[in-house]
Amino acid sequence: MEYTIEKLNEYDIFRWFTAISSIPRGSGNTAAVAEFIDSFAEERSLPHLRDGAGNVIVKKPASPGKADSEPLMLQGHIDMVCAVEDGRDIDMSVTPPRLVVDGGWLRADGTTLGADNGIAVAMMLALLDSSDAVHPPLVCVFTADEETGMDGAYGLDKRSLGARRMLNLDAETEGVFFAGCAGGNKAVVRIPVTSSDADGDAWRIELVGLAGGHSGIDIDRGRAMAPMLMGRVLLALRHTAGVRCVRFDCGHADNAIAERAEAEIVCRAGHDVPAVVRRFEEILRAEYGMTEPALRLHAGRITRPPQALDGAGTDALICLLLNAPQGVMERSAYIAGMPQTSSNLGIVRADKGGIYAEACIRSAIATQQDWINLRFASLAASLGGTTECCRGASAWEFAPDSPLRDECIRAWEDMFGEKPVVKISHAGAECGVFVSEMPGLDCVALGPNIENAHTPRERLDIESAKRIYSYLKYVLLCL
Fold first, then answer.
1. Among candidates 391, 392, 318, which has minimal Cα distance to 355?
2. 441, 179 in Cβ contact below 8 A?
């Protein structure tokens, strides 16, 4: 079927997705969308609560004949990662995504789409608005600021929920049910530097075209890590041309694999910086030919600034870029191929004010998560800096006995004639927060096909979203 936005809006979930997509809702900027949901509930006389952490809870009584069924919580987050395509001047704090139908996919024009996790919000609104869905008592939980530390989930008073089973709608592969996830946290590194007068030639080096991606879902796909690649380039120039860094800028979120990096440098006059950069482009394109076909390195002259980081500050930056833990650190001995512990250096900034970096650390084993945090602390300390380990997601341990999971599997087999795949996710999930604070909570995570979340190439499979919503209505009938 060929779709347009107007045609898509004939379907309940896409009508609501379009509605919330008209509201800027990056992490930390969710008050307007929370107000929208609050007003939605008020208009339908549904019991609702908006708390101090920015979460909204909306309850809907059971359908006739289902009043004796155990209440079910549906949960998703209202915030999204805001990332903009290179060369586009879009301020997502005031400009929402512009939806585009691209064949069988829904994407945004030059920005992240926000299907992660706006499609969950849309599905819950559609169910709350539905007059024909048959369901047990529903508790729809719309959490705030998941992408920047799950602050909404942590700040939610779980005592008000009144449900002991939960469907999380933040998974991104149709036919895969998640029954556990890794824990994770953010590590913030700060290193002081000294600047001095700059002399020589000034250049801007740009690394662009990397695939990037979600640091939990895509970390094991062999994609290049922009900080490390730029560290290699700067190290070569440091040795041959005495390069000093003026400014370094890489990444937009700790939990997103950086797609680009940019360095402004000064070096000895007359050094052929473009030749070094061209050579490294050849090397890197050969190394990452399968996973990074669009990788590009470019060097261009710029006006020389008055100051640059001194040699020690430049060395500290290069050391951080090259030696910070990046990528998959350990794989599971129990589930073949599954990443067990990983680290993503998602943000690095440097200028005369100092070096600042954020990393997302994930592990299914708490002691290995601690180990990576200690590696960052040790590296930062050796460079004269500090590391702060921020609160992160709790691990969601696999429960061998899950009546809700059994019912979801049976309903999937009934509807599609095949078994779904049950996995443990390496990505953090709010399920870990709920399970850790609500012992005994029976939980399953599912969702439609979403590709390239956290990047401007994010897209949602239209037919998959329709199927998952139909399945959701069926499983609610069965519960």
1. 318
2. no
Please give the distance of CA 334 from its chain centroid, rounded to a whole number.
Answer: 26
Long-range contacts of 367-376 (CB under 8 A, 24+ apart): 368/329, 368/330, 368/340, 368/341, 369/183, 369/184, 369/185, 369/341, 371/341, 372/187, 372/325, 372/329, 372/341, 372/343, 373/185, 373/187, 375/325, 376/187, 376/189, 376/324, 376/325, 376/343
124-175, pLDDT tens digit by residue?
999 999 999 999 999 999 999 999 889 999 999 999 899 999 999 999 999 9
- Rounded CA separation 87/296 (Å): 15
Give the single-character DSSP code of 225: -
Specify the pLDDT at position 397: 82
Kindly give the pairing relationship between strand 48-50 and strand 56-60: antiparallel
Q: Give me 175's structure tokens.
A: 């036919």
Residues 363 and 366: their CA atoms lie apart, in Å, by 7
* Torsion angle of C-alpha atoms 301, 305, 310, 311, degrees rounded to 10: 10
pLDDT of res. 366: 82
Tokens for 264?
């402004």
On whether the CB atoms of residues 424 and 364 are closer than 8 A, the answer is yes
Q: What are phi and psi of 188, to 5 degrees?
A: -110, 125
Residue-wise pLDDT for 30-43, tens only, equals 999 999 999 999 99
Are 119 and 13 in contact, with CB atoms under 8 Å apart?
Answer: yes
For residue 141, give Cα distances in angstroms to 97, 166, 416: 23, 10, 28
d(CA 240, CA 340): 39
Cα-flanking dihedrals φ and ψ of residue 181, to 5°? -155, 160
Q: Which residues of the chain fall below pLDDT 70? A: none
Q: Which of 432, 466, 216 is nearest to 338 (CA)?
A: 216
Where helices occur in 194-305 by DSSP H, the ranges are 226-241, 273-287
Q: What is the pLDDT of residue 400?
A: 86
Q: What is the pLDDT of residue 322?
A: 98
Contact 446, 468 (CB under 8 A): yes
Which residues lie below 8 Å from residue 284, measured CB to CB, with a gap of 6+? 224, 229, 292, 295, 297
For residues 201 and 241, give the distance between their C-alpha atoms in angstroms, rounded to a whole number: 10
| Packed helices 12-21 and 115-129: angle between N→C axes, nearest 10 degrees | 130
Helix pair 462-478, 115-129: axis angle to 10 deg: 50
Q: What's the confidence (pLDDT) of residue 149?
A: 81
